[in-house]
Fold this sequence. Notes:
- The chain is of the alpha+beta class.
- The chain has one domain: Serine Protease, Human Cytomegalovirus Protease, Chain A, CATH 3.20.16.
- The chain is built from 3 helices and 8 strands.
- The protein has helices at residues 47-53, 94-105, 178-187, and strands at 16-18, 23-30, 39-41, 60-62, 65-78, 82-89, 110-122, 129-142.
- Strands 1, 2, 3, 4, 5, 6, 7 and 8 form an 8-stranded mixed beta sheet that branches.
- It is globular and about 45 Å long.
Amino acid sequence: MLAPHSSIDTPFHPRAAIFPDGSVEGYASLFGDIDQARDMVMPGAFARTLALRGVRRIPMLFQHDPAEPIGIWQDIAEDWRGLRVRGRLIPDVVRARELLALLREGAADGLSIGFKTVKARVDPKTRVRKLIEIDLWEISIVTFPLLPGARVRAVKEAKPPFAPPARARKPVLPDPTARRRVLYQRAV
Length: 188
C-alpha cells in the first residue's frame, strides 16, 4: 500500500459527491493528471472497455477488495474531464453502511480505478506512462487514491441514514376484517 502523498503545491479539489440516498458521483479518473505511480490517463482510454462491458459489469468495491462489493454503478461515462461515475451504495451491505458514515466524516473520500493496461507509451523525457487504452475492471471507494484529485465531495442519505434492511423491518399485517367488508359490500 502506498502512503498518502501530500504537497503544498497540490490543492485539494473534491471530485465526487455523496447524496442522502447513498448515491455517489464524481470522477474516478481525470484526463491529463499524473498519479503517484507516474501514470496519465489519456482521453478515450475507457471507450472500448465501456462499450464491451457496460456499466453493470464494472463492480463498485471497497479498497479494491473483490470480497467487498458495496454498491452498483448506475452510470459510467467519459467526458472532457475524465471518467465520470454515478452509483449507489447498497444499504443491506454492512460495509456500505459503515462506508457511508466514513464518507460523511471525510475519513474515506477517494475514488480509484482497477484496470489492466492495453496500450500505453512512456514519455522518454518525463518517464510518465501515458495510458492510451485500458481494460477497466472495477472502481473503488478508497482511503488513499493514487490520483490525488479523485475524491468524494458529499453523500445522499436515505430517510434515516440508510433505512434498515427490508427483512429487519416490522411486517405490516393485513386488517383481518378487510376481507369480510369486501365480501359484504359485494353481497349488498
